[in-house]
Amino acid sequence: MTFYVENEAGEDFPFDMEETAKAVCRAVLEEVKCPYEVQVSLVITDNAGIRELNRQCRGIDRETDVLSFPNLDFEHEGEFQVEDSRKADYFDPDSGELILGDIMISVDQAKLQAKEYGHSLRREFAFLVAHSMFHLCGYDHMKEQEAAVMEKKQSEVLERLGIKRTENEET
């Protein structure tokens, strides 16, 4: 996996942000049995940055915690069917890796939500990465049944990594 990180907010995290994100990404890819090596980009921004992108891309003029920009078109979640005619759109010609997509996280929202939910910033950050990665793998939560599947998978991944909701330490 090639993992790109841009911390445009310049935030210093009380844990290894990049290592946590990579571990979560790997765990999600294992969960969905992704058959390819992948590229994922992560941008850490603030509320102003994510609000502008949310407005431009979704027509919603407010902050949000995470935005996901999948590169693939999925017919069914977690099914990485790539037609030969579309391979040039989905794979890096130099590395051969599947370009899975981009994740953008508002550190401001992550801090706020960690405080609101009574757990660590690391746990909230890991949850947002997992949530976004499942979106990049074709999962959604628009319908109740979809939401239940996605929530279960997110919880299983975080639990497998030992990142629990009751995690109270600063890291």
Offer a concise description of the structure.
Helix content is about 45%, strand content about 15%. The chain has six helices and four strands. Helix 1 (about 15-30) links the parallel strand 1 (about 1-5) and strand 2 (about 40-45).
Detailed description of the structure:
- It contains six helices and four strands, in the order E-H-E-H-E-H-E-H-H-H.
- It is an alpha/beta fold.
- The protein has a four-stranded mixed sheet, with helices on both faces.
- Helix 5 packs across helix 6.
- The mean pLDDT is about 95.
Q: What's the total number of strands?
A: 4
Can you tell me the residue ranges where pLDDT is under 50 for at least 5 consecutive residues? none
Binned, the helix content reads 40-55%
Number of helices: 6
Strand ordering within the main sheet: 1-2-4-3
The 3D shape can be described as: globular
Distance between the termini: 24 Å
Sheet-strand content, in percent, reads: 15-25%
* Rg measurement, Å: 16 Å
What order do the helices and strands follow?
EHEHEHEHHH
Q: What's the pLDDT, averaged over the residues?
A: 94
